[in-house]
Specification:
This protein is mostly helical. The protein is 50% helix and 8% strand. It has a two-stranded antiparallel ribbon. Strands 3-4 form a two-stranded antiparallel sheet. A hairpin with a 5-residue loop joins strand 3 and strand 4 (110-113). Helix 1 packs across helix 2 (22-31).
């Protein structure tokens, strides 16, 4: 089974999986409700995530009685919430005590480094005998 974001389904297959007519998918694309990827020949390619969104559009329309403009606004707000949640998670990771690691920038400034670079930074800065995955030595006085 393809990954959730793999855009592999042609419009006829996506329409069948979503329980809709292909023309409905074209209309939703024109309205910006679901924007599938395009091939070089401009054919639409849908992902499993797109199909789930199509089903949600149908549910909101039929069960909740929401018009397409309202559904578009709901989808836009959901995407914004997802984006902001990811940003909050990223910033929380930088701000939590014990989770920030600093290094000296070539300019002389002290800068925070991301978690993906920390292990490499630890290995590069500490002598082999001092390497410890639990601590980073950023400064050591001479003679101690």
């Amino acid at each position: 089974m393809p990954a959730e974001n793999a855009q592999v389904y042609v419009i006829s297959v996506a329409a069948e999986l979503a329980g809709m007519h292909p023309q409905t998918l074209r209309q939703y694309d024109r309205l910006g409700l679901v924007s599938p990827a395009r091939t070089r020949g401009r054919g639409r390619r849908y992902s499993l995530r797109d199909i789930a969104t199509l089903r949600e559009v149908q549910r909101l329309s039929q069960e909740e009685g929401i018009n397409l403009a309202g559904i578009k606004r709901i989808l836009d707000l959901e995407h914004e919430v997802e984006r902001l949640s990811a940003q909050v998670d990223y910033l929380r990771g930088l701000a939590e005590p014990g989770r920030r690691v600093f290094t000296a920038h070539p300019s002389g400034d002290v800068v925070a480094i991301g978690r993906s670079r920390r292990r490499r930074a630890m290995a590069d800065r500490a002598p082999a005998s001092d390497r410890d995955d639990r601590a980073i030595v950023l400064w050591r006085p001479i003679g101690r």
